Amino acid sequence: MAIHHRARDTSLLAVGVQDLSTMQPMTKETLFVWDSLSKLLTAALALTFIGDGRLRLNDEV
């Protein structure tokens, strides 16, 4: 988790485990696989653009 204040990192925390089967702890250097998460972020961004009037559902992309 990163906590930002006025566009600066003020605190970096690593909590939990990377993999429940190995119980390897999370570190600040742990990398995440984004595979299907990119779909969620793209949908959220598209809905934000629709709400702002910058995109319509039937626009060609």
From TrEMBL:
It comes from the Bacteria. Pfam families: Beta-lactamase. InterPro entries: Beta-lactam-related, Beta-lactam/transpept-like. Gene3D superfamilies: DD-peptidase/beta-lactamase superfamily. Coiled coil: none annotated. Residues 10-61 form the Beta-lactamase-related domain. This is Beta-lactamase family protein. It comes from Brevibacterium aurantiacum.
